[in-house]
Amino acid sequence: MRVEGHGGTGLNVIDFGGEGPGILLLHGLTGRAANWTATARWLTRHGRVVGYDARGHGHSDKPDGPYDRPAYVGDAAALIEALDLAPAVVIGHSMGGLTAWQLAGARPDLVAGVVIADMNPVTPPNLLDRWAAWLADWPVPFPTLADVRDYFGAERRTEGDSFVEVMTGGPDGWRPLARTDHVLASLAHWSGRDHRPELAAVTCPALVVAGAQSDQPVDRQREMAELLPDGRWAVLPDAGHVLYYDNPDGWRAAVEPFVAELTARAAHAVRAAG
């Protein structure tokens, strides 16, 4: 399915199924909606679950720009409105978590609650340089998907599994679906920033979930939960940054009761209004 996002950018959408209140899934930088497949399977019992490839990612359009925060937030808002998901529970990982809380602050009418998965609200000033060096080091093209899995899963196997989802095959091997210049252009708009002042605008319920072994500071994420007006907190043991791959049972145990509470509330409101 295709939906027109901010500025007419075409977004590749996966409708995972389910009926009832809207649940929107936002992946992280370099990711795609398919990363959420395992999570979406159990979420469908609570509502209609939708994910999409962010601009410049996956099979969505890859325009020259913009890749700033208003474009990403505008895409999420446009999709919620186009698919009549409002008010949606918005679940975002990493960059998707940033988009989720910025959307909730800018358009509270569209958001019933947010889950922020492993995102540091204070991004270091050298983040863009670190990513540029890391991306330049990728041995592209990868000869096989096994090589992709081994390269990215050298320290944590599940990270290799997540990167397999974001590659496309060609005659000479496997390459990332997202272009390096688009990734860095996206990152440039949130690298080296303190986003904590934005959190006061998020008046809906918000759950912050951190990986205990993530490179994203756990203390910063706990602080974010405390700064949110209606913030809640969970930390997953044995999980790194891609926490829903690393500890899927812990992820579900943390997130499902929160989603169930919000979607039940939304369904009750619909029945009362009707």
Automatic annotation (TrEMBL):
Signal sequence coordinates: none
UniProt GO molecular function: hydrolase activity
Keyword entries, A-Z: Hydrolase
A Pfam match: Abhydrolase_6
Keyword Hydrolase: yes
Domain AB hydrolase-1: 23-251
Keyword field contains Repeat: no
Protein name (database record): Alpha/beta hydrolase
Biological source species: Micromonospora globispora
